[in-house]
User: What shape does this take?
Amino acid sequence: MTATRELTRFTPDDDLLHDEISRSGPHARESLLLTAPIPEEQLLVFLYLWREGGDRWGRFVFVGGPEMDTPLFVSHSDDATFSGNDLRDFTVGGLHWRQPEPLRVAEVDFSERSASGTSVGTAQGLALSVRFEGIHEPFSWHDNADGCPDWVAHNRYEQSGLTRGVLTLGERRVEFTGAGHRDHSWGSRNWNMLQHWKWMNAATPDGTASLHAMIMSVKGETLVNGYLNRDGLVSPIASAHARATLDERMYHRALSGRFTDEAGREMTLECEYAAGWSMPIQHLLLNEIGMTATLDGHPAVAHVELGWPADYVRALTEPSA
Amino acid sequence: MLEPKDDLRHRLAPGPHARESLFYNVLLPREGLMIFVYTWVDAENRAGHLFAVVGDDDERLAFSAVDGVSVGDRDFDDWVVGGMWLRHTDLVRSGSLGFSGTSVSLRADFRGTHEAFDYASNEDGCPAFIADNRFEQSARVTGELVLGGRRIPFDTTGHRDHSWGTRDWDTLQDWKWISGQAGDGLSLNVMQLHARGETTRHGYVYRDGTLAAVVDVRTRAEYDERWWQTRLRMTVRDSAGRRTSLTARRYALLRFDAGDRLTLHEAGCTGTIDARPALVHFEAGWDRSYAQAQARRLTDGA
Assistant: This one.
């Protein structure tokens, strides 16, 4: 195995707000994401919050189920109240997020009844508590050959992790342990640049292998980001090939991927649909799907997001007049 | 496997996207001109043409577009749509075409410089939303353009293609189609498609007397503030194991729309293939809203 080069080291301050970068300017944005697929229960827990323009907070909380068109719980706010101590321990629209161990641990709690007015879905309400423990140091897209484009973020980290938690959906209570993923980005975000993307995350339950891969179609070219993690060595992805099987609604029901990192290692990903929801953001649809998976043939858990322009999906899925 | 009869009309299954089309170009960079000739017919025998002589920045020195012209069972060995005519005389080898209009006329004879190459011969095949099949061919082209009373004879290289089946423009997200010739013995055609989230590659390289399928393509394009391509750098790997490089710089551009969503930017370019002077046609197709968003970003930072 070839030794990998020194990678970007984030500091504890990178787990906090980057006001000097993300507070002002065109498309100024800072965001945190945490995903906990529970494929054995056909559930996907998805938590996403952001600050735009320095003072407008928003967040998505949803639990996807076996039917893409029938989310079990969705709560969305584009104008949420922030309170707390920077990003160490804070709340955005009822989503309570703590980062007790910098760059390693996040703990999130949320509770809402459907009657609150912001939520939809088949469940009467959601109570959720989830803890995420990173299984390697956060990875910066700047460590990839294609870098971190300035319209994505000034910088961005991605991290595979193990998840543990409990959720109550109406009368259904589920305790879970598994694998998940989180990211944190700060800077500008211009969604108009994206034509399509595949954001793929997978990890084995024991944390010995994981991957994060992003393949973006931008300005007619293909950009690749991400890492492979195996036996404690995280190495930037050098090449990525992925093919999705789409259904008639353009939801991905399966995906096969083959990845090579700078250390010369290869990893294969195979995954199949378990639970998801199609999340609208601006003119785009983000099809968020938790998947049963294998990494190099070993059982794993995956979250695969495919992004599409909504007009494109409409043109291909709705019969012409 | 192509047959001579593939240079004639094919039976098309009825449907909203059924289409058979032919394309020819002539690039005249010393005159600052690109000649663009396109004709098509659907399953109901309704035909059209797009004929243009353009300079740079979509300057239309001559332009004619018609559609829905009933042609019955008229075939490509004697094709007439509006003021445009075409004769495929020696099938999949050579043909003649012309156009007569107000202050413009064209006569051009195309002779293929190698066997026609069909996209079904590529590893990625010919995607069903593009056509049942499609062939491409570099050519020696001779003739004369008369524009505004000025006679412009030419003896140069050019390109043509012929496709038949379904053309569902709306399945495409973006694409690059490139044809280039550095004389009669070195030429290529490349199509790189993005559709339904996948990338596919098509086309050929003709070099040292050998025609080989495109296997892989790397492109880097540059654009002006209208999102019209200005330059291209491309590397092509073919099934014979060869690596061919191309550069191109725009001198002429035609823009038009297709389908409900797409815009086509056709750039006539000068450039090189493996460092030899070349004529290059670089077509970029975009979702209109995406192209507009990129133009806004470049002009006002939006």
About this structure: The first helix of chain B runs from residue 288 to 300. The two ends of chain B are 49 Å apart (CA to CA). The interface with chain A takes residues 16, 170-171, 173-176, 194, 196-199, 219-221, 223, 260-261, 284, 286-287, 289-290, 293-294, 297, 301-302 of chain B (CB under 8 Å). The mean pLDDT of chain B is 96.
